[in-house]
């Protein structure tokens, strides 16, 4: 993971010009502004510098700075398998409240749960609707989970079932307002295309590249053994073929380089034959074998493994982010349509 665009390059400097201790990405002394401690590197960071609203101060569960999340400092920089991420407590569902939720609840307090429900009711309030009808609607919502205890019923108030899930009995009114909505159908089609085809295809490409790099590494290890070389000796000027241990991430594997290793670039990343067959036919006098570049220190394809791996990882990350945005848009659209549906339903019952 790379640093955010707004985050400066890491500096290990701990003191300022006058010898005072400095902190954060800004490398300034503690000036009294709100700060948060990093659980990865033990440094302190200003909320303002990290672009975190101060209202989120109670929602931090486990914080890791941008450098730890990028693997520059913290556990990942010391060989840990997983790159840490900041973990947030769940925020109270009331928009203006930034307190964490109570256990097994979506609210920080019972009072905010009731307030949330009043706001939800206001969304479906119909001008002219009698007060008794509105009270009945509230009772219906409160009794939505008939088999739960009263406490559990309250905790489930405002749950997604009521406003997002399709009703069990779908009539022509529901079809006309919700099910046949063109925008909703378009979003559903896009989400399905991403989930069923685009994202799986990109994951397959990543898997194919990883498999090819494993094949290439095995070849290079055998060729190095034949040359009586130490296959663990590093050379940062070598090619981008990988030397990978079981506990290292794929992108890190692709960056490891080996002295006198063949380039290994292949345009389609398909393994053309077995490792033993390739090693047997290999010769230093030819530039290419079975579509694979076998030059040592190849300037034309320098760094290809790293670039190909990172490019596909970034593409996959972008697709997954796009999928998340589409799902959110679909959820919001469905909420709007369901509100319209329930409003119309109430009108017809008057």
Automatic annotation (TrEMBL):
One of its GO terms (molecular function) is zinc ion binding. GO terms for cellular component: Set1C/COMPASS complex. The keyword Metal-binding applies. It is found in: Nucleus. It comes from the Eukaryota. Residues 227-254 are annotated as: Disordered. Keywords: Metal-binding, Nucleus, Zinc, Zinc-finger. Residues 245-254 have a biased composition (Basic residues). GO terms for biological process: positive regulation of DNA-templated transcription. Residues 21-71 form the PHD-type domain. PANTHER family: CXXC-TYPE ZINC FINGER PROTEIN 1. This is PHD-type domain-containing protein.
């Amino acid at each position: 993971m790379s640093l955010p665009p707004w985050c400066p390059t890491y500096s290990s400097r701990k003191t300022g010009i006058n010898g005072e201790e400095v902190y954060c990405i800004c490398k300034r002394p503690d000036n009294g502004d709100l700060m948060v401690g990093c659980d990865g590197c033990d440094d302190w960071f200003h909320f303002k510098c990290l672009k975190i609203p101060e209202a989120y101060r109670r929602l931090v569960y486990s914080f890791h700075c941008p450098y730890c999340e990028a693997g520059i400092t913290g556990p990942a920089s010391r060989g840990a398998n997983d790159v840490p991420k900041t973990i947030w407590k769940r925020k109270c569902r009331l928009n203006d409240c930034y307190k964490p939720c109570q256990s097994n609840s979506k609210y920080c307090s019972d009072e905010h749960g009731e307030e949330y429900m009043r706001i939800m009711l206001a969304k479906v309030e119909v001008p002219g609707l009698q007060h008794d009808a509105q009270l009945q609607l509230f009772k219906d919502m409160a009794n939505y989970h008939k088999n739960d205890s009263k406490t559990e019923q309250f905790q489930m108030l405002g749950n997604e079932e009521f406003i997002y899930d399709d009703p069990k009995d779908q009539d022509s009114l529901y079809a006309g307002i919700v099910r046949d909505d063109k925008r909703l159908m378009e979003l559903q089609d896009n989400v399905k295309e991403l989930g069923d085809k685009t994202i799986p295809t990109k994951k397959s490409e990543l898997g194919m590249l990883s498999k090819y790099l494993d094949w290439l590494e095995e070849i290079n290890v055998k060729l190095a053994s034949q040359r009586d070389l130490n296959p663990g000796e590093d050379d940062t000027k070598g090619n981008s073929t990988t030397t990978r241990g079981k506990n290292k991430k794929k992108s890190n594997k692709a960056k490891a380089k080996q002295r006198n290793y063949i380039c290994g670039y292949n345009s389609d990343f398909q393994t053309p034959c077995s490792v033993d067959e390739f090693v047997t036919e290999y010769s230093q006098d030819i530039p290419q074998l079975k579509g694979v570049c076998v030059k040592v220190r190849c300037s034309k394809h320098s760094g290809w493994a790293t670039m190909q791996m990172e490019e596909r990882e970034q593409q996959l990350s972008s697709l997954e982010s796009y999928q998340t945005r589409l799902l959110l848009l679909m959820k919001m659209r469905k909420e709007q349509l369901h509100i319209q549906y329930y409003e119309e339903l109430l009108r017809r019952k008057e």
